[in-house]
Amino acid sequence: MDFTHFNQEGRAKMVDISEKKKSHRVAIASGTVKMKKETLEKVLEGNMKKGDVLNVAQVAGIMGAKKTSDIIPMCHHILIDGIDIEFKVHHERNEIQILARVETIGKTGVEMEALSAVSITALTIYDMCKSIDKGIEITNIHLLEKKGGKSGHYIKKEVKDDES
Which domains does the chain have, with CATH numbers? Predict the structure, then answer.
């Protein structure tokens, strides 16, 4: 098997995508932040000391997607045409589900940017709530769907109703 991210000496390299054709690329990722019921209530009421948690986390997630190539060594720097971050609140489980959608017209996919957006959004929620809830859990960060490129369309099997 040929590994694409290693040179002839077995050292890491960034894959050359100069010959690839541009195509419309979309990636959707998800993750969950679980917290105490009281913490969730404060977040939703906008009563956290650091401000509007979801608004700040949404902006941080967008920034995180845009900076992905700065923190993941083998990611290409790409132009992002759109980023959207949504929150679904699951009161019965005291969870906030994060959904990030990233789009581009380019030579390489945006899966890492969508996953970074979810991760940074979740970490920002944690940061803004940790003073009252140290037990917050960030879980289940994963790719739900990707479109475009040579590998085509991927949809995660066994997607739960609350993840779409």
Answer: 23-148 (3.30.70.640)
